[in-house]
């Protein structure tokens, strides 16, 4: 793996708008694959923004030069650090048999992907931050193309497989013995299982789903001591996850 951007966001059909960035690897040295990846994400998704967000994006890039406050609101999305219950879009540059592949995950909405790229750039130290944000601004006004020899690949349904560990990643971030227990699990089903604290090997039975839902719902409800902030979003996610799993339960 040469570069990776992991954007966590609300799923397409959920009413809430939340976005966070998780465990990304964006090197700027040498071939600057991290910079290439950030530009590619912005160039891919910027044309899909509605008019209001497209007009606000240059101002957001300017604001991000001094860093971004999190939590905050940008482009009508809540920027946050908590990733619990959020879907994942994983954008990467990888090397396969000597060929560099730019892999863009296009199953999610456009706005959170761009916000993820901006958040990742804004979290960098001052010098690389300004370089990255300048590159993102240029990607808005040009028909961006990948570097010579780099192949593009678009993933229409996400990539629900374990990702390779970037250099310096904590132990355990890659699957043991190269085995990925989530392989073959549809993205939506995986999200629902993770939201209800279930794993890929768990039998999806109605009774199990209902039990997990009730326990987590009780823990998320303010009447049982949970914080008011974010409770409605958490309850909505638990409810949707239950619906997803009940459709495929035995």
Low-confidence stretches: 160-179
Relative helix content: 25-40%
Q: Give helix and strand order, one letter per element, not per position.
A: EEHHEEEEHHEHHH
User: Taking strands numbered 1, 2, ... along the chain, how are they ordered across the largest sheet?
Assistant: 3-4-2-1-5-6-7
Please characterize this protein's 3D structure.
The protein is an alpha/beta fold and 250 residues long. Helices cover 39% and strands 17% of the residues. The protein has helices at 33-45, 51-63, 110-122, 126-141, 187-195, 206-220, 231-248, and strands at 3-9, 18-25, 72-74, 77-79, 87-96, 99-105, 151-155. The protein has a 7-stranded mixed beta sheet, sandwiched between helices. β1 and β2 form a beta hairpin. α1 (33-45) packs antiparallel against α3 (110-122). It is globular and about 55 Å long. The chain starts with a strand and ends with a helix. Mean pLDDT is 83; it is low at 160-179.
Topology:
Blueprint: E1 3-9, E2 18-25, H1 33-45, H2 51-63, E3 72-74, E4 77-79, E5 87-96, E6 99-105, H3 110-122, H4 126-141, E7 151-155, H5 187-195, H6 206-220, H7 231-248
Parallel strand pairs: 2-4, 6-7
Antiparallel strand pairs: 1-2, 1-5, 3-4, 5-6
